[in-house]
Fold this sequence. Notes:
The chain has helices spanning 7-34, 50-54, 70-73, 130-134, 177-192, 240-248, 257-270, 274-303, 325-332, 336-340, 342-347, 352-355, 357-376, 391-407, 423-430, and strands at residues 59-60, 64-65, 92-109, 116-118, 125-128, 145-148, 154-168, 203-207, 228-230, 311-314, 320-323, 420-422. Helix 7 (257-270) packs antiparallel against helix 14.
Amino acid sequence: MLGGASRASRAGWLTVLRAVLAEARRSEGRVRRYEQPAEQRPHCRRREGKAASLTRMNCSSNAGCLAPSPIVCVPLLLRALYADVSGRRMSKVEMGWNFQLPGPIEWRIDEKIRAEVDVGPLPGWKLVTPLGMLKAPIGHLGFDVLRRLPSGELWISDRVLALRFHGAAPEQGHPPAMLAAAKVLQAMRYLARQFALPDQVIAYSGHALQAGPPIQQISTEDCSETLMLRDYFLSTAVTAEHLEQLASLPPDFVVPAPAAVMLDALHAHVAQDFRKALLYAAIAAEAMASTRLDVEYKRILRARGDRFRVVDLAGAKGALATKDPIYDCLRKSDNFGRLLHERPLYLLGRSLRVEDEPTYTRAIKLYATRSKLAHTGTVPPSNQATFELSEDGAREGLRTAIKIMEWFGDAGPYVAGWGFVSLGDWMNRRA
């Protein structure tokens, strides 16, 4: 590398390299001090005086150091500073993050679950499960709920998402931590259909990855008859099966829009926002029907089966376009009833109106409600053609939308939050 340079030039290069190595060693020393217990960290000592109190570090053996220092608030990348000084380039890095959420993730898992699972859409990334978080001192302050269910499973309610990355250095293109957290939260919300699962982060910090103490104590008191839960808590909790699905998702996975809107509708109902619940329920049902029929129509055009009237027609500029003129006429009409009756009858050989007329009738009512809300923001009171802006009206509209989603192939399961249930009743219902 320096063979062709003059002696003075080589001496200058060596001076620069020695300075880089010295700074890297000093930086790694600071990291080691950060990884010490809180009481041994020099910068965590209590300072006296008014000015000092403004800059006092908030450190404890449980919470880790949250000081406004790049050593703490930025993932630990310092080992990457040893870049080809002596012919040894570090092409891999290992980092971890804690993401504080505005609300909890509900888990229903057993103690055999792995500490970490792969994130399919994000190669190199791993999700640290709650049991893995218990074994790593990463600034976790404890779970909202940690209880053993009568089935032997653990019910864990936690406001922290923990991710780990091992792979190519950031400059080689892995997604930023916040983007990774958003993708994981969206995927988990969809896989578990846990509509209340947070989709945003309110704080985060980097952490070192170390082994920690085992699980301490889990409450096993019998509260199956007295503990009342929202009826969707445990039914939509994240399980080991959902984590297996997360690991198998393709890199280009995107949550289907109809499902995301349906989950928003269910969340709005629990939040007593009945206008939003009905509006989103209608949008989700229409989007699901349209998406399913569009996919089927494209498949038919590719297959060019004898059952359909697929032809090649010249366009305005002479280019050929493959289409079925009959279906094109059917879909030109912006008619919600036709979306549920004539169009699926032509493409799928099935009709919601023929197979389930009561649901079809309520679907027309739901779409009428959506139109009123979109144009006026409200619905007339005591109008038989629309659903009421009430808990009962929103519940009926949501049930209708869920049935339409299921009829077009999305079985969910979508669990609406209608009220509360005792833990014992939930276990009996599950059995």
